[in-house]
Amino acid sequence: MTLPSTTVFPSVAVVIPCHRVGPSILSLLARIGPDVDSIFVVDDACPLQTGELVRKQCTDPRVTVLVHARNGGVGAAVATGYRAALDTAAGVIVKLDGDGQMDPALISRLAAPVLAGEADYAKGNRFYSLRDATSMPALRLIGNAGLSLLTKLASGYWQLVDPTNGFTAIHRDVLSELPLERIAPRYFFESDMLYQLNQLRACIVEVPMRAVYGSETSGLNPAHSVVPFLAGNMYNTARRLIYSYFVRGFSLASLALVAAGPLLMFGIVFGSWQWWLSAHSGVAATAGTVMLAALPAVIGMQLLLSWLNFDVAAEPRLAIHPRLASRRRIAETTTPT
Fold it and tell me: What is the pTM of this model?
């Protein structure tokens, strides 16, 4: 079928945050295909002066270099690139790291579900096949597994397999709704984005990819990142539960969540105390005492599992950007000139 000549396809912009990247950025830029209309290289006070290198040696007219006077973190650099991309006609904005671990040939595949209206946000998935997962260094594999569970709880996107992946594509109408100034500026940025997207009820899908791990040095120190990531995810979990289950809506799942905690806590604490008393006195606890400890714990666990089942089922499934675009068009046509 031949499309009418008036058909317009949304353009794609790419944002590349750079810190300690250096000359490798040039080969990465050279591999970005013609399906991308604009490229924003954000030099986050790079000590290797990546931005200046790109300005001098890259002749691609699509490339714009943005420079931070001070290092703000990868999240701050991405936010700067996002704001610049929103000033273009790009319908989808892709975030691509400058270290070469993400293949630019996959940009079209990543952007496809967003362009097709199937999702608002697409993420790469490095664990789609066993071969790809086993190619990841063991330390990163273990770290990603732990972070993934925390991020799922904090964001509400339980079906994501690789939630910490930074190879992403987002629709411009959804991006324009996000409070970029309030999203974590450093490595917690990707996880914080998921929390903010959940508050918009945005639909997220994953696209299989294969990460390439070479001689590059990751700026993310696992030992230094455990506490900030744990604290950030716990904070977002509390915010999400309060806002989603007690402010924006209230349901039987809210009641289950409220009751589960006290019942579990009472059962565990009371049962532990009675066990300690029995162990030190040599007198076995009565059946009533055992039931008084076990029953609240069992009911609390059942209520917690019931809430979890509800939360998993409540994950957003429908893209919101078609509705956002309709609202924007209506607002534009009704705004007085």
Answer: 0.86
